[in-house]
Amino acid sequence: MATFLVVHGAWSAGWAWKKMHPLLRARGHELFTPTCTGLGERFHLGTPETDLEAHVFDIGAVLETEDLRDVILVGHSYGGMVATVVADRAPERIDRLVYLDAFVPEDGKSLRDLVGADAPRPALDESRWRIAPNPMPPDTRAEDVAWSVPRRRGQPPKAFTQPARLTGAAKRLPRTYIYCTRAGPGDVFRRFAQQARNDPAWAYHELDASHNPHITMPETLAALLDRIARGRAGSA
């Protein structure tokens, strides 16, 4: 029915969407969950020069080599940065952009710019150059914490500091924002959700979930993505 291509969040990788594959497949959809350079099973490929552009290239290469078209491109968290640039450069391959509790960049803005100058200075991991992972949301089940935490890796910092370069083509695509309402302290996604909710050009949805519904509420997320794919999900 639809082809989903996911850009995962910071410190994460394709593995984090493991629960979603059988759920979307059962609904007739195809799901691609590539891992960006320097993370997950591609951790060993990361260097201090790995940046936002490297991750844009990773996802763009999947579009091209798999010859994907009419794609529903899903950006989760940091992945919204990557997905926006990818869609801006290859809008002819994208059917819809879906931001899942994600950053929505403007031209010339980096993730650090969007977070704001008052944000706490990030801690480094044992490499002394990668940014250490944020903790999992407190409502994450113990078994999911045990599964996820050992697989989360330090984020290459240039992915957070390199500005997105955009022409505006992504803004002309159909766009959906999914806001996870169980926000923790320092919720950086609420303002993007509010902008989408107040803009009739966007479709807007809320999930009673914390930041990683693909881990904590996969059935609920799969049902919503299925509705979006079938064109039956107005703003709600």
Secondary structure elements and their pairing?
Layout: E1 3-7, H1 20-26, E2 30-32, H2 52-65, E3 71-76, H3 79-89, E4 94-100, H4 111-115, H5 142-148, H6 158-161, E5 175-180, H7 190-197, E6 202-207, H8 213-216, H9 218-229
Parallel strand pairs: 1-2, 1-3, 3-4, 4-5, 5-6
Gyration radius from CA atoms, angstroms: 16 Å
Query: Gap between N and C termini, in Å?
Result: 22 Å
Given the C-alpha coordinates, what overall shape results? globular
CATH classification class:
Alpha Beta
CATH architecture: 3-Layer(aba) Sandwich
The proportion of residues forming helix, as a percent range, comes to 25-40%
What is the number of helices?
9
Structure description:
Helix content is 31%, strand content 14%. It has 236 residues and is α/β, with parallel strands linked by helices. The chain has a single domain (3-229), classed as Alpha/Beta hydrolase fold, catalytic domain (Rossmann fold, 3-Layer(aba) Sandwich), CATH 3.40.50. The chain has a six-stranded parallel sheet with strand order 2-1-3-4-5-6, sandwiched between helices. Strand 5 (175-180), helix 7 (190-197) and strand 6 (202-207) form a beta-alpha-beta unit. Helix 2 (52-65) crosses helix 3 (79-89).
Brief overview, please?
The protein has about 240 residues and is α/β, with parallel strands linked by helices.
Keywords:
single chain; 236 residues; alpha/beta; Rossmann fold; 6-stranded parallel beta sheet; 31% helix
